[in-house]
Amino acid sequence: MMPNKRSHHGTTNIKKTLNLIKQTFTVTALAAILYIALNNRDELITIFLSAEIISLCTSIFLWILLHILSPLFTVFSFKLFGNNINYKKAFIIHNKRLPAKYIPGGIWHTVARVNDYHNEGVSASSIGKYIAFENIAAIVIALTIGCILISQNTQDSSIHSATTLLSVIGITTILTPILLKLLSHKLMMNISLKKYYISILITAAYWSIAAASFIYFIKSFTNLNIETNYSMIGGTYLLSWGIGYIAIFAPQGIGISELISASLLKNSMQAAGLIPTIAAFRAIILIGDIIAWSSTFFIKKQN
């Protein structure tokens, strides 16, 4: 049978269109953030000059911890799917590929790691399952924890109802393997619930630390006059990250995450230019990534 050239051409056009949308949205989002920052530059300067260095350093330190925790998730997740990779190799692979995060497209850190796992002898089937599990677990756990924190702290009844519903859906999704195991042992016979829930707990710890990093970042700016508790701030970060991650037209959630965070916190944090302030957290992430990436050179020299 001859391949359908028209179908292939149509798929290529769709990919090109999606890439164009992503690039256009990214440039537009960055331009909008820059515009807002320039319009509120005097207040932003005051805010950043008031930053507490200890809180900023704590924020960076917590972000670095995430790159120590991520390889642990890799180890247990591969065990879950029948393959083994030791922590040291998982750590080096994860961290040496961090610069790929910043290549336009938002997928290259994953692509680079997939190639490294394959070179380590991990089966293609296990790699595919691992990548799917990694992404699904990240989205579900981040949104679930975020929604729980927001539902317990928001004063808006509609937001409370929506986040409570999402929390229930998230918890149900996490518990699904137990239900499937009870209903059909054969269906889940190759899945270790112990390894599954260890992976889930590691992911929950990961996002709790990520939220804490953001909280310390916001806490460092004393001139923001925060009128809400830190649980609400942490929950807002996780929810905005989750939605930004799902928005495929916004690589790394640029613009989307900042807009959602600012919308949820605008009634409780009295400061103009909140969006560019939140966007500045990406600088904390970048510094943490650079330090974690640099650590791989030290480890290699020790070998």
Explain this structure to me?
- The chain is mostly helical.
- The protein has one domain (70-302).
- 76% of the residues lie in helices and 0% in strands.
- It is built from twelve helices and no strands.
- Helix 6 runs antiparallel to helix 7 (157-183).
- The longest helix is centred in the first third of the chain and has 35 residues, at 5-39.
- It is globular.
- Mean pLDDT is 78; it is low at 267-272.
Topology diagram in text:
Layout: H1 5-39, H2 41-49, H3 53-80, H4 87-96, H5 108-119, H6 124-151, H7 157-183, H8 193-219, H9 230-246, H10 256-265, H11 274-279, H12 281-302
Helix pairs in contact: 3-4, 3-6, 3-8, 3-12, 4-12, 6-7, 6-8, 6-9, 8-9, 9-10
| C-alpha-based Rg, rounded | 21 Å
Would you identify the regions where 5 or more consecutive residues have pLDDT less than 50? Answer: 267-272
The number of E-state strands comes to 0
Instruction: Briefly note the structural class of the backbone.
Output: mainly alpha
What global shape is seen? globular
Number of helices: 12
